[in-house]
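[scheduler] slot 2 assigned
[scheduler] job type: sequence-to-structure, two independent chains
[scheduler] chain ordering preserved from manifest
[runner] begin chain α
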Amino acid sequence: MSKNKDLAVVAVSGGMDSCVTAAIANQNYKLAFAHINYRQRTEKRELRAFNEIADFFNVKERLVIDYTHLSKIGGSSLTDKDIEVTKADLSNKEIPTSYVPFRNANILSACVSWAEVLKAKAVFIGAVHEDSSGYPDCRPEFFSAF
């Protein structure tokens, strides 16, 4: 990796989308990784994967943020054990129970704030509209508006 590369902040959950996004960002940027814990059911496993991916890409700049307010707000089966997690159904037109209200905006806001401090030139987030199960904050319109 060239030391002359500009820096990019990458939101990394630890899943496949963010791993692929990190690989894409790594082609042209030096990486800084941000991870958000919001008391999601998979929090420990995601954090472990985040660190494993950061180790793989030799990322030194790492930021883990606790957004516990997302679980306090509620409304998602990912943060509320009293709400049943529904199976993914890509043909369903309804927003699934696993949607965390406005999560990606919260993640992007944190990444942009950190990017300003680091003087990063780009921010990356891995969100795929086609397999998002209807999440409003994975739609192209959301990212255009953001």
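[runner] end chain α
[runner] begin chain β
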Amino acid sequence: MSKIPVRKIKESFFEERFSIRNIEPLVAEGDLIHELHRHDFYFILFIKDGSGEHEIDFIKYEVSDFSMFFIRPGQVHQLRLEQGTSGFMVQFTSDFYAPRGNPAMQVLRKVSSKNYCQLSEVRYGNISFILQFIFQEFTQKKDRYKEAIKAYLDILFIELARQSPNPQKISNEANSYTQERIEEFMELLEKNIGSKKLVSQYAEMLSMTPYQLNAITKTTLQKTGSELINEHIILEAKRLLIATSNRVNQVADMLGYEDPSYFIRFFKKQTGLTPEAFRQNYK
């Protein structure tokens, strides 16, 4: 069975676990094209000006001036940037910035929950200054440059959170706790959907009861835990159907279904299409 190609931080950047690149040299002689793949790191694309198309988990976005795209580890995407596009690409691993337990993780989770954001020219200008400082630190590599980059990332993500058209304001500890549990739940889904499909299993990993987890998901997202689990099963199934040539029974097996016919019925109930029909319609 084939798997979705997973890109890792380039070996030249492995020690840093971070990189920032100016886009202009990458599109100096032609369009930049990345076929469908997934990362094991965070990937942020800041577009100052230019055009193209960016598809993230089967949602297509137009690349335009003053836009930002944020890809979380595990998501699938494909990208086309036209010649002449300018901006920055930022890549970093989860253990480079905000290790688990670091309060900055809360801000990272918030800004990374939105794959696409259209920035105003003024906001992009503010962000551009921060990116220039990060680029300078990364290229010059002066004493304690990694610490400086992490500090600038703190400011960058705060700026991104402020400009969100629909900011999820955290007004008290209860709301902060709820948001953090939801985001942890979504991270666990990304990592465990092939082996765990019950609300009780995720509730246990979150040190909660199924009732508590369902109460949080209903209040915050107006969906039950089971509905969110089912949505993620379908998302991962779509990723495997589109990004690999695996047969439907192989996809079912990769998702933990011993009975392919049950998986096919489940997929059709959720999407209105059989897995094979979805694959053919996507082409």
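[runner] end chain β
[qc] chain β: The first helix runs from residue 104 to 112.
[scheduler] slot 2 released
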